[in-house]
DNA sequence: CATCAAGATGAAAACGTTTTCAAATTGATT
DNA sequence: AATCAATTTGAAAACGTTTTCATCTTGATG
């Protein structure tokens, strides 16, 4: 019926010491005589005392909780990052408050505010754009923040990513080298810097080096969804694209199936390279060639970086780029 | 530099009222004269006051946070549930502390304990088995708990699921009706009641009604992973199975590709029905026929149910079964 | 105009920790 | 035996709210 909670005070009384001493042994403070420590530990055991983390948070101003803002857990790419984040967080004794933002600016701001209200010790932000409004909130927050799989156009926020520009350039070059003159660029919103400023740049660079004229008819801006990809086939055909680099694996799977269902053969009639190397690439047939990214590690490193900031350690570099690669599977010849 | 936090006390002073009154307006308590309310609100605005949720939690014993224990966010099935949970949680102003358990009993208990320490108002548990140890912890916790996509063998914990037994029976019948005499049953660990007591039971019932002898050579116990499925092909062939019901979509995709890669044709040489109807079923080729489950809704309903418990409302039924179906796609004839 | 009930307010006590600072104890050194 | 520094301890003040009472206002009613 009752709350029936055992408090630090109960332990202190039973062990015949002060709350301060109990607090010390609970927190592993070395300034406690071994004998007293044992005595206290025994009482804790006997009473089954569990420190109240909320009270602790209030007194110490540390909640050992970090906020994670994710566009959609349901997206394999982001959930892979999230897994990396959570594992490292757990390793450092933090918990994760996870919230979906749907990349909706208003929701992002609102979520950020409740996270701050809950006094999280830090935040990992995923998403594609850091809106001005969001940046303002970030600034106001004294709370450390790290971006994961998310570029900051102004380069002032700590983040961990791969070199999207170079990766896409390499992928496109790969496609061109095999004779494709019309390579489509398919991504999410070009309002997102990650697409507009990084991936598209790589695309253009590859074209330029190959002496191919840039044609914005070949650039497709869409949602990161399977359906969206599937519906793209007629448009791709009408511009005569014979290959594509695609910014998301689910989207890529959609494109591939759309093309295949239209009777074309991948990779003989149409080659494609996707971007995230999630497990989906191996599940579909043909398996998708992909830019490889250390997904789990991006999350893990971001979280690790965050722990440093929360600990006031100096981090060598604020902006870390993890290695990428190109994995040939069956959607390229 | 400094914490620079505006407290309720500052607001009270500036507005020339007591903390109690500020608290009242912040919490929408109607017992405040409109004029004072406005005065307070203005000060709050001017000072940009944000209530500290931790202090609030300590004083009110409510954290508006619920814990979610998930085997692995990276699994499409679970992340779909998680999404439903989070959306409803947000709707009711709760936040989610999300932790991966890997279905590891020790980790589950440990995670549960830290959630309790953090004074979450409730818990949604996903996973396949509720171990004895876990049940003990659950009992000790005064905190309301709801299972999502997870059966309680003893039927005493609130949960939301579909009728796995009936669903599997129907799927197997479907396969048998089309002439398959040797239908394999492929699931995760049979230590999990969901497989052992529910799905397998449905499988047996279908066989029985069709007058086919149960043969445990046709029962495959494995991991819920793509790889595990892929490796199953030789074993399936050696027992002469011509069809299978499979307990997880990633696993099913693995089985299908294993079979296909071995040169067989799905569905002509081998038919299969999977269980979770995640978006993966539509991404692979052939598209997988599946038992359908309202994934998102399972999570959503579980969370909704939890809010009732947290609110001490009486819930009509503790154990809710959502409707399932059978979706014919291209892995069955 | 006295009376009362209802409506607004405030003082202060929780809530369960951590942390600061001073006091008490210890033990080694002279 | 006296001294001093280190080591252990405890008292009490935070931490920033909510909540319980009691008190004070109000305005209507007789």
Brief rundown of the structure:
The structure is a homodimer of 333-residue chains. Chain A has 14 helices and twelve strands. Chain A is an alpha/beta fold.
Question: What key attributes describe this structure?
Answer:
Rossmann fold; homodimer; alpha/beta; DNA-binding; six-stranded mixed sheet
Strand order within the widest sheet of chain A? 2-1-3-4-5-11
What does the overall shape of chain A look like?
elongated
Distance between the termini of chain A: 69 Å
Rg over alpha carbons of chain A: 25 Å
Tell me what portion of residues of chain A adopts beta-strand conformation.
15-25%
The domain count of chain A comes to 3
Share of residues in helices of chain A: 40-55%
Give the number of helices of chain A.
14
| The CATH class of the largest domain in chain A | Alpha Beta
If classified by CATH, what would the architecture of the largest domain in chain A be? 3-Layer(aba) Sandwich
Protein name (chains A, B): Catabolite control protein A
InterPro entries (chains A, B): CcpA, HTH_LacI, LacI/GalR-like_sensor, Lambda_DNA-bd_dom_sf, Peripla_BP_I
Keywords (chains A, B): Activator, DNA-binding, Repressor, Transcription, Transcription regulation
GO molecular function, one term (chains A, B): DNA-binding transcription factor activity
Structural features, described:
Chains A, B: This is Catabolite control protein A. Chains A, B: One of its GO terms (molecular function) is DNA-binding transcription factor activity. Chains A, B: Global transcriptional regulator of carbon catabolite repression (CCR) and carbon catabolite activation (CCA), which ensures optimal energy usage under diverse conditions. Chains A, B: Keywords: Activator, DNA-binding, Repressor, Transcription, Transcription regulation. The structure is a homodimer. Chain A is of the alpha/beta class and about 325 residues long. The first copy, chain A, folds into three domains: about 10-50, Orthogonal Bundle (434 Repressor (Amino-terminal Domain)), CATH 1.10.260.40; about 65-160 and about 295-325, Response regulator (Rossmann fold); about 165-295, Rossmann fold (3-Layer(aba) Sandwich), CATH 3.40.50. Chain A is about 45% helix and about 15% strand. Chain A contains 14 helices and twelve strands. Chain A has a six-stranded parallel beta sheet with strand order 2-1-3-4-5-11, sandwiched between helices. In chain A, helix 5 (about 75-90) links the parallel strand 1 (about 65-70) and strand 2. The model of chain A has no long low-confidence stretch (mean pLDDT about 95). Chains A and B meet through helix 4, helix 5, strand 2, helix 6 and helix 12 of A and helix 4, helix 5, strand 2, helix 6 and helix 12 of B. The first copy, chain A, binds a DNA duplex (30 and 30 nucleotides) through helix 2 and helix 4.
């Amino acid at each position: 019926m009752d709350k029936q909670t055992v408090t630090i005070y109960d332990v202190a009384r039973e062990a015949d010491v002060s709350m301060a001493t109990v607090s010390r042994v609970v927190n592993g403070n070395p300034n406690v005589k071994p004998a007293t420590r044992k005595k206290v530990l025994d009482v804790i055991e006997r009473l089954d005392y569990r420190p109240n983390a909320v009270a602790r948070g209030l007194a110490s101003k540390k909640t050992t909780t970090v906020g994670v803002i994710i566009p959609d857990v349901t997206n394999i790419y982001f959930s892979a990052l999230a897994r990396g984040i959570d594992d490292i967080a757990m390793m450092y004794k933090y918990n994760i408050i996870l919230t979906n933002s749907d990349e909706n600016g208003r929701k992002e701001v609102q979520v950020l505010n409740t996270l701050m209200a809950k006094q999280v010790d830090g935040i990992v932000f995923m998403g594609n754009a850091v809106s001005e409004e969001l940046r303002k909130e970030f600034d106001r927050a004294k709370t450390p923040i790290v971006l994961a799989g998310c570029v900051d156009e102004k380069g002032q926020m700590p983040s961990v990513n791969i070199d999207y520009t170079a990766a896409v350039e390499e992928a496109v070059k790969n496609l061109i080298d095999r004779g494709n003159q019309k390579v489509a660029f398919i991504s999410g919103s070009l309002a997102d810097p990650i697409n507009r400023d990084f991936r598209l740049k790589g695309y253009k660079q590859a074209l330029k080096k190959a002496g191919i004229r840039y044609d914005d008819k070949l650039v497709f801006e869409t949602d990161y969804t399977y359906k969206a990809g599937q519906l793209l086939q007629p448009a791709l055909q009408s511009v005569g694209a014979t290959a594509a680099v695609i910014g998301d694996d689910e989207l890529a799977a959609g494109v591939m199936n759309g093309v295949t269902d239209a009777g074309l053969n991948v990779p003989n009639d149409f080659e494609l390279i996707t971007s995230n190397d999630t497990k989906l690439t191996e599940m579909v047939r043909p398996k998708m060639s992909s830019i490889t990214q250390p997904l789990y590690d991006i999350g893990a490193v971001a979280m690790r970086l965050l722990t440093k900031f929360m600990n006031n350690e100096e981090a060598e570099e604020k902006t870390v780029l993890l290695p990428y690669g190109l994995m040939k599977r069956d959607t390229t010849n």
